[in-house]
Amino acid sequence: MTAKDPRVAEALAWLERRGSQRNIAGMARYGIVSDKVFGVSVAMLQQLAKRFGRDHELALALWDTGWYEARMLTAFVDEPERVTAAQMDRWARDFDNWAICDTVCFHLFDRTRHAWRKVDQWSARRDEFVKRAAFALVASIGAHDKQAPDAPFHRALKLIEREAHDERNFVKKGVSWALRVTGRRNPALRAAAAAVATRLAGSPEPAARWIGKDALRDWAKLKFRQRRSVGKKPAGK
User: Fold this and answer.
1) SS3 per residue for 95-156
2) CB neighbour burial string for 170-205, b if at least 16 within 10 angstroms, e if fewer
């Protein structure tokens, strides 16, 4: 299947009809900027994805159009079991904002058999959104795979601490996301993550210090909410 597939033209026409300059401006305010963008919401993209269903070849053709929304659509259309390591590298190099990075990682890449290998590889890359993708993958796996063993998350904590010095906004926030989710998985990982966060919070480097404090605040809020939930009386009592 190539970009000549009639469904690609159908998808682009559908997106163009529903795009708006107002949405484009709103996206830009949140740092979502791309060279080719229609201005269509994720909710609408998911509607279109349901029409097409899962189709790996269609996803490849949609990505090759270069349109932001067509690429976002691939996260809901591609087949995780057919995604290759080379494809992941190629697409990651095309990431040009945090939204496409996080959506593809959260809805597609984390379900592939290559995910942890890409965490290791991408965490050492210089490109801002490729590096962010490494930590978005950790967070995505942590949120979705409840049966995943602790060992890869312990390895990820070492990468988190290693890369916490990166002051670029989207990398810093990605590292924090990975740390926070890892610490929410179970008591053992919470203890390991808390040790990392405490060291980072005491760092002289601003980015590392921010990441450590952000994680510690997140867990403190979670603990507070849990205590309030336990303390609430059942309705009618």
Assistant:
1) CCCHHHHHHHHHHCHHHCCCHHHHHHHHCCCCCHHHHHHHHHHHHHHHHHCCCCCCHHHHHH
2) bbbbbbbbbbbbbbbbeeebbebbbebbeebbebee
Quote the tokens at residue 12. Answer: 């682009």
The structure's pTM equals 0.92
Asked if 172 and 178 count as a contact pair (C-beta separation under 8 A), the reply is no
Query: Which of the pair, 223 or 195, is modelled with greater confidence?
Result: 195
Other CB atoms within a 10 A radius of the CB of residue 46 amount to: 14
Domains of the chain as residue ranges with CATH = 1-78 (no CATH), 97-231 (1.25.10)
User: Residue 75: pLDDT above 80?
Assistant: yes
Tell me the pLDDT band of 1, cut-offs 50, 70 and 90: very low
List, for residues 175-218, the tens digit of each pLDDT value. Answer: 999 999 999 999 999 999 999 999 999 999 999 999 999 999 99
Contact 200, 208 (CB under 8 A): yes
CB 196, CB 179: distance < 8 Å: yes
Task: Please state, in angstroms and rounded to a whole number, the distance separating the CA atoms of residues 65 and 13.
Answer: 12
